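Q: Structure tokens for this one, please.
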Amino acid sequence: MSAVTVKPRKGLDQLLQVLDEKSRAILWHLWWHRHADISELRELIDAASDFEVLYRLREVINEKSLRLWGRPIVSFEQSKMDSRSGAIVLFNWWFLDEEKFPISAGNKPLVDIFDEKDSISIIARVPTSVNPAQREVSYKNGILKVRLGKRKSNGTGKREKKKGR
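A: Here is the predicted structure, written as tokens:
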């Protein structure tokens, strides 16, 4: 009987687990916004110089992506059209192949917290059945609780989707 090796599905969570906080912040920003220029990323992580950002993009994020999957996950483009807006974007770093990298390849919770200059950002993987319009946020003694309502079922077992999405 021969052993069969099953290659794990590519999940962004695999890469996030091996990155430091500043590199995770850059990767999340690029995933969320799809692209950013170097000054935007420098401000995001409060870097001393563009070199620090370039180092993280090339030597940390892409290097670990190459080790995990054999290819980079971010790329610098002099000129590229944003498929969502139709705008030509110049001199930006781009998140590559967003659809090929789901947030998580498993069922483990994914939560990331970033202490930014003027705010705290919390990124969490939640089921698609949530209704972000129905939210309740509370804070007590250093503990934050966010409660999201669920979309109502339409009687067929399927959740209703908002129109226009």
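A few notes: Strands lie at 35-36, 74-81, 88-95, 111-115, 120-124, 130-140, 143-150. Confidence is low (pLDDT under 50) at residues 1-8.
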